[in-house]
Amino acid sequence: MKITFCLPANSYRTIAGGYKVVYEYSNRLAARGHEVSLVLNTGYAFKNIIKIEWVRLLVCKFWVMISPRWFKLDKKVKKISANGITNRSVPNGDAVFATAVGTAEFVKNLDSDKGKKYYLIQDYETWECNESYVVSTYKMGLNNIVISRWLMKIMENIGVKSFYLTNPIDTGRFFVKKPILDRDSHSIGILYHKDKHKGFEYSYQVIRWLKIVYPDLKVKMFGTPKRPENIDSGIEYIQNASAKQLSELYNSVRVFLCMSVKEGFGLTGGEAMACGCALVSTAYDGVFDYAIDGENSLIIPIKDVELAVKRVSQLFEDEELLQKISRKGAADMKKRTWSNAVERLEYIIGK
Description:
The protein has 351 residues and is α/β, with parallel strands linked by helices. The chain is 36% helix and 18% strand. It has a seven-stranded parallel sheet with strand order 3-2-1-4-5-6-7.
């Protein structure tokens, strides 16, 4: 089949779980013999800094050609620098995907020869647009595919059908390399993100409290922005970490802390579990697609810094609980295979 994914402008420059998922599907579909194209919308890229349009378009084409720098795309995947997602920029095919709220209306307006129209919904993107517009994109008549059960529930509540396609974990990259008890006794991993709904402010409060109780605490942090200036100098930070670096980071800590307020799935939590970390996470909607409190993770109320400190301390102090959560989490993530996910996607678009 000829399959096209339409992506926002920043998808080729910004490391994000949603883009990572699309790139993984592209590679794996191409490996299975499908003709895959990525249409990257550069209609607004660099407009504030490059005023001559033909120069801007040339720069955009170059950026798309060398990107994404942070993910290795299969050479068989065709990348298209598109000055807007239009009938002119999107190739004819069998299936065409919107991958974010900002691409849904463009895909809706494409001609039918571009392929059957799908909408890969990876979060409730109310931070991008107002809620009424986000909901309106779900009602545009595209074939909605959701990555978590809470998103499916939203579709049901507004009377829209959807396909369920939960996110897999790349256990070829993320797996246990170092036994949990061989890692530093008081070690923790966190994600740094500027968006409020990712909850970094609460993660950092937890770290500051833990540091008082455990002066030898080792904190490993990663993210896409530059290292924030106002954090403890003792925190190790990796900017734009590769999959290999992330795997090594996860395998060097006993606990991974996620204080998200709202998130579609939470890929980093699943990856950390696959590497044997004991996950302590807030009860945001998306986490329940893979996390079970007391079995493969410890779940706390959203924004509850005090309880987060207690749960992390509990894991530091109770090695039996630590090993139980670690083993179960890694075992559960092994079941979330990419081969099953790709077969499920082929079934959906074939159907």
